[in-house]
């Protein structure tokens, strides 16, 4: 056994120097080759070196195997020699691997220059070179000048390949567009050289090419105009021709009304995709050109279809939705895209999801249209009046309530009819009922805001308009109460009902306040003082102006307002008017005979004209609280001390209904001179 190991050791000690010598020789040869090709750029034959490389590699493997089998332990000298041999061999192996890698990369570059290399073969060789360049086992490689030269040559060769591929692809698939003053034409020509096209596309796909330029051209120059503009589309795919032609032309500027319907758009897009499929090279079941294009543009294309075409074509009416086939058409279109392999794995369900939401969008659009129609009705001129009966506008709880007629605007009648129609649709379409009901609430809320804003000047300046608006609000409020059973699940209507009533009353109340202000301004001319000797035309004009104001209100309110509202409103104004007039008369310290006669004349004007403001003139006694007091004031102004004493009747007479004892005493002092009869009269008034 020892003899065998001794023999092996002697072989190693002989072979190691020889192998090291061969490695150094190989390194020199590789250095010459690399320097010649990547430094001096001189062509050098490498076949002999490669043959020697294989032989040397075999010898190294055998030698390494021999050294690993030795178990020298008899002398330190032998052990040290073996370690030295192994170390020298390891260092030589490092140099050998670097030399072999450089020579292998160089050999692959040489193969690129062989005639007959196609795009795929060239890409394959460059791929192997890239792998070798990326696998840097020894850090020394990165610092070598020749290695950087190899990297530079790879980048040059790769760029040349990509440029050649793009040039060939552009030759096989020609994308052109031309813009004129008002129009634009687009031409796509796909040559039928399937073998070359296959090689080009497959190689581009292997280089991770994303075809972004193609996608951008199709989106901007083809699909975008097809979706939003009327286009002239010609697709020529005759079997005997050497190419497929797609021609597109359209106006640069097109009005909104000329935009094509969604059916036309989907049909055109499908026709374009069908003809573009002539360039859809299929590499494998999972990879093809259309899938690469889809990853770049499908989301944008689908979004464009939805936002700029489908959304505007969803019917806004129930009849339109019943006749629409959009959901079916969109699902069929989505299946077509899947069939043509225009899929990206992420956005393939976008159109189908949108198709499933069309009904919801239709309901929203329908309700938006309902609201828009209601707002258009509200904006119409509201001067035309329509007479209606009491039971049509006022929610009457008592069957004994007296019925009368009043007026509302034709606008609110049309709005009420429209609300009836909307409510009927809500009842007929359970799935959309809640949205319809909410829209009704929105309409009524908008009514309380939009109508007063749009008619602000009319409502505050023209009494008839404020009265009509009050009636309109009451009319809509009654509609709510009438349909309470259909709306009772929506508590917001209770608030809307109260708000409607308050809105109408508030506007009308502001008109009443305006009339009071106007009346008080007119009474500014009814000035009475102790310096006044007799009443002039100014006082009479003030009274007549107020009466005229009431007569005008009668003309515009009596047939418009419900009778109870009319009586309450006008009687309130008259009552304030009489109170103010009598307060000024009673404030006089001295009433001469001339002034007294003048005041009686004015009271006669009032007693003659004011009862005529009501259908039944006798009603003024019940409606106007100050009326009886006015009549009694006339009696006092015309009466004698005896008559006044009798009317007071020691506090039991009719004057006690409206006057206090102090008020009667004051009037007596103002009307009569200080005599024993006046003193007796005053003494009796307690």
- Report Rg: 54 Å
Q: Can you give the helix content as a percent range?
A: 55-70%
How much of the sequence is in beta strands?
5-15%
User: What is the strand arrangement across the widest sheet?
Assistant: 1-2-4-3
Low-confidence stretches: 1-9, 39-47, 71-75, 395-403
Supply the helix-strand structural class.
Answer: alpha+beta
State the major sheet. 4 strands, antiparallel
Number of strands: 8
GO biological process, one term: endoplasmic reticulum to Golgi vesicle-mediated transport
Family: Belongs to the ZW10 family.
Subcellular location: Chromosome, Centromere, Kinetochore; Cytoplasm; Nucleus
GO cellular component, one term: nucleus
Write out key terms for the chains shown.
4 domains; four-stranded antiparallel β-sheet; single chain; 686 residues; two-stranded antiparallel ribbon; disordered N terminus; Methane Monooxygenase Hydroxylase, Chain G, domain 1; alpha+beta; 27 helices
What does this structure look like?
The structure is a single chain. The chain is of the alpha+beta class and 686 residues long. It folds into four domains: 1-114, Up-down Bundle (Methane Monooxygenase Hydroxylase, Chain G, domain 1), CATH 1.20.58; 166-317 and 326-357, no CATH class; 380-511, no CATH class; 524-638. Helices cover 69% and strands 7% of the residues. It has helices spanning 2-38, 47-69, 76-112, 119-134, 145-172, 194-206, 212-228, 262-276, 289-313, 318-323, 326-339, 350-379, 390-393, 410-428, 433-454, 456-461, 463-482, 484-487, 492-522, 537-557, 563-586, 593-609, 620-623, 627-638, 641-648, 661-671, 676-684, and strands at 173-179, 183-191, 231-236, 243-251, 282-284, 287-288, 385-389, 405-409. The protein has a four-stranded antiparallel beta sheet with strand order 1-2-4-3. Strand 3 and strand 4 (243-251) form a beta hairpin. Helix 5 crosses helix 6 (194-206), helix 7 (212-228) runs parallel beside helix 9 (289-313) and helix 25 (641-648) packs parallel to helix 27. The longest helix has 37 residues, at 2-38. The radius of gyration is 54 Å and the shape is rod-shaped. The protein starts with a helix and ends with a helix. Residues 405-520 form the Centromere/kinetochore protein zw10 C-terminal domain. Belongs to the ZW10 family. It is found in: Chromosome, Centromere, Kinetochore; Cytoplasm; Nucleus. InterPro entries: Zw10/DSL1_C_sf, ZW10_C, ZW10_C_2, Zw10_middle.
């Amino acid at each position: 056994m020892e003899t065998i190991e001794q023999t092996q050791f002697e072989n190693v000690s002989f072979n190691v120097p020889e192998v090291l010598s061969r490695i150094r020789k190989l390194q020199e040869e590789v250095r010459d080759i690399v320097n010649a090709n990547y430094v001096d750029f001189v062509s050098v034959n490498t076949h002999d070196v490669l043959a020697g490389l294989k032989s040397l590699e075999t010898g190294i493997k055998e030698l390494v195997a021999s050294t690993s089998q030795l178990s020298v332990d008899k002398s330190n000298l032998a052990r040290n020699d073996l370690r030295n041999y192994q170390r020298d061999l390891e260092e030589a192996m490092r140099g050998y691997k670097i030399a072999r890698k450089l020579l292998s990369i160089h050999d692959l570059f040489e193969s690129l220059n062989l005639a007959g290399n196609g795009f795929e073969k060239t890409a394959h060789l460059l791929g192997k070179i890239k792998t070798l360049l990326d696998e840097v086992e020894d850090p020394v490689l990165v610092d070598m000048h020749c290695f950087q030269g190899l990297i530079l040559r790879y980048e040059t060769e790769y760029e040349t390949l990509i440029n050649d591929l793009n040039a060939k692809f552009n030759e096989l698939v020609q994308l052109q567009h031309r813009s004129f003053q008002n129009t634009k034409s687009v031409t796509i020509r796909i040559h039928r050289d399937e073998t070359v096209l296959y090689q080009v596309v497959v190689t581009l796909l292997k280089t991770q090419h994303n075809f972004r330029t193609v996608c951008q051209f199709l989106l901007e120059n083809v699909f975008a105009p097809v979706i939003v503009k009327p286009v002239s589309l010609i697709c020529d795919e005759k079997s005997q021709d050497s190419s497929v032609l797609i021609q597109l032309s359209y106006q640069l500027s097109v009005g909104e009304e000329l935009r094509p319907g969604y059916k036309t758009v989907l049909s055109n897009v499908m026709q374009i995709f069908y003809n573009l499929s002539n360039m859809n090279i299929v590499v494998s079941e999972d990879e093809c050109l259309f899938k690469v294009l889809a990853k770049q543009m499908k989301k944008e294309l689908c979004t464009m279809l939805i936002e700029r075409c489908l959304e505007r074509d969803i019917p806004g009416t129930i009849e339109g939705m019943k006749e629409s086939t959009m959901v079916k058409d969109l699902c069929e279109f989505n299946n077509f895209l899947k069939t043509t392999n225009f899929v990206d794995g992420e956005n393939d369900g976008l159109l189908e999801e949108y198709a499933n939401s069309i009904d919801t969008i239709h309901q929203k659009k329908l309700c938006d249209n309902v609201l828009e129609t209601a707002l258009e009705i509200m904006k119409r001129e509201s001067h035309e009046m329509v007479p209606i009966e009491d039971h049509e506008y006022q929610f009457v709880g008592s069957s004994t309530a007296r019925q009368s007629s009043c007026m509302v605007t034709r606008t609110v009648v049309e709005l009420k009819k429209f609300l009836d129609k909307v409510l009927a649709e809500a009842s007929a379409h359970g799935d959309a009922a809640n949205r319809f009901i909410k829209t009704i609430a929105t309409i009524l809320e908008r009514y309380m805001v939009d109508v007063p804003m749009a008619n602000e000047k009319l409502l505050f300046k023209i009494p008839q308009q404020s009265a009509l608006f009050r009636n309109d609000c009451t009319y809509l409020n009654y509609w709510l109460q009438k349909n309470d059973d259909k709306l009772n699940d929506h508590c917001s209507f209770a608030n809307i009902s109260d708000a409607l009533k308050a809105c109408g009353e508030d506007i009308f109340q502001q008109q009443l306040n305006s009339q009071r202000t106007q009346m008080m301004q007119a009474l500014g001319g009814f000035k009475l003082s102790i310096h006044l000797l007799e009443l002039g035309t100014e006082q009479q004009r003030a009274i007549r102006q107020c009466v005229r104001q009431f007569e005008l209100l009668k003309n515009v309110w009596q047939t418009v307002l419900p009778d109870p509202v009319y009586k309450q409103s006008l009687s309130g104004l008259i009552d304030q008017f009489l109170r103010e007039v009598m307060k000024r008369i009673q404030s006089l310290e001295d009433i001469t005979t001339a002034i007294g006669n003048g005041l009686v004349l004015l009271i006669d004007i009032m007693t003659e004209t004011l009862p005529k403001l009501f259908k039944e003139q006798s009603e003024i006694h019940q409606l106007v609280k100050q009326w009886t007091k006015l009549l009694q004031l006339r009696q006092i102004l015309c009466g004698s001390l005896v008559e006044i004493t009798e009317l007071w009747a020691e506090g039991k007479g009719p004057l006690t209904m409206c006057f206090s004892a102090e008020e009667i005493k004051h009037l007596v002092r103002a009307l009569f001179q200080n005599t024993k009869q006046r003193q007796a009269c005053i003494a009796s008034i307690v």
